[in-house]
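Why does residue order matter? Because the sequence determines the fold. Keep that principle in mind as you read this record.
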Amino acid sequence: METGFFSSLMELNAAGDWKLTIAKEKEDTIVVSALLYSNANGDKAGSIIPPILLKGTPQEIDEGFFAAIAQPVAATSGLLVSMEHYLKQQERAKAESQMEKDKQTKAEQEKKEQQKRYDEAMKKADELEKEGKYREAWVKVPDPADYPGRAEELRKRKSELSAKFSPDLFNK
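Structure:
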């Protein structure tokens, strides 16, 4: 007695696992419950998918089982796959969102650090200028290439300091 039942079940290509229950209702009637589910799916909505219920004589169930479940199984399988895909995409979006926040935070921190270095360098240059150490002050003024938004201001500052250098015996 070879039926090919399980081969036919696998030919449905359903994504998930099966729970099959067969109960005798009356002397000549049985009820078959076929439930496609997925434990891998983290979406709890998958647990409310009802089983497919078929009621009839054993001969009726034999003849019509696969025809009766093919369409609902395809729909359920697609739903389970979609739910899993959705959850994976949602996790990916959360991760990428966190990455974006981290990038933005890092950029803000770098900007603050750059501003802090600029302020410290300018303060040190001012102190050295007050002490009459113009060459040392000129060296402490930040490079205009490092601060493109303030390049003109930095060039002007360096020019003002270089004008105060004491005369060089070799460059007249």
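The longest helix spans residues 58-130.
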